[in-house]
């Protein structure tokens, strides 16, 4: 099973709109073309699809995602309008990845750049993981928009997952959770908390400078995506960069 993760497209209604360093739709189309060449089984889009939260921006995105040639799924980030997204493609809280399960968590807090899962969602997650111990022994991959670990960037870590300590406490009883995929950070990232790996992904639009105290764009970094190969209990992952 090959999953490709992309994130943070930041499209606008105008297909010719610029970002700080380029043209987001053109960059997304280049990323999708490269991703499609790797023959994915599933495409997962981990939020911030839009910059202006317009219905037109989501139509542009959906058209690009349709061209990848495999089923695709998305959920909202802090820049997104969930209702407009679900009019085009409903959200899914769980995906069947064959030997693995993928659980999608909603870390968006309306009106805020930072994220939070909240006590209700964490309680639901714990219940799902408890049931899976008894009924479904497959390893589990989690996905959310906001990063659940510090990445060493002062300004960005202030906008991460606010209740990350409770999140990790929740996971501590469930060894079937093997990894977490996140967006939001606009850069490649790999770390771990206990036995759980955490992976961030480059944006398809502008990249943020790693380890920066204040907001900074990485002018040298190219757009990219993450490839995740899943086989039985094995997970192999790497980042692909895309030349424009």
Automatic annotation (TrEMBL):
Entries under InterPro entries matching the protein: Calcineurin-like_PHP (IPR004843), CNP_phosphodiesterase-III (IPR050884), Metallo-depent_PP-like (IPR029052)
Positions of the Calcineurin-like phosphoesterase domain: 1-187
Transmembrane region(s): none
GO molecular function, one term: hydrolase activity
Domain of life: Bacteria
Keyword set, alphabetical order: Hydrolase, Iron, Metal-binding
Family recorded in the similarity comment: Belongs to the cyclic nucleotide phosphodiesterase class-III family.
Protein's UniProt name: Phosphodiesterase
Organism ancestry: Bacteria, Pseudomonadati, Pseudomonadota, Gammaproteobacteria, Oceanospirillales
């Amino acid at each position: 099973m090959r999953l490709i993760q992309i994130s943070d497209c930041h499209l606008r209604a105008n297909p010719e709109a610029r970002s700080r360093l380029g043209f987001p739709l053109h960059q997304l189309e280049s990323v999708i073309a490269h991703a499609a060449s790797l023959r994915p089984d599933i495409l997962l889009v981990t939020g911030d699809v839009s910059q202006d939260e317009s219905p037109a921006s989501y139509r542009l995105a959906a058209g690009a995602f349709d061209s990848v040639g495999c089923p695709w799924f998305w959920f909202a980030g802090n820049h997104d309008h969930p209702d407009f997204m679900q009019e085009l493609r409903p959200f899914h809280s769980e995906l069947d990845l064959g030997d693995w399960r993928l659980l999608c968590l909603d870390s968006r807090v309306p009106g805020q750049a930072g994220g939070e899962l909240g006590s209700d969602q964490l309680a639901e997650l714990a219940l799902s993981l408890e049931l899976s111990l008894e009924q479904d022994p497959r390893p589990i991959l989690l996905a959310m928009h906001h990063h659940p670990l510090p990445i060493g960037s002062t300004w960005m870590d202030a906008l991460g997952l606010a209740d990350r300590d409770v999140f990790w406490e929740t996971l501590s009883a469930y060894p079937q959770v093997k990894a977490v995929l996140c967006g939001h950070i606009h850069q490649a990232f790999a770390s771990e908390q206990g036995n759980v790996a955490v992976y961030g992904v480059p944006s398809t639009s502008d990249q943020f400078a790693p380890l920066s105290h204040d907001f900074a764009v990485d002018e040298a970094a190219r757009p990219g995506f993450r490839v995740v190969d899943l086989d039985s209990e094995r997970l192999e992952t790497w980042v692909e960069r895309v030349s424009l």
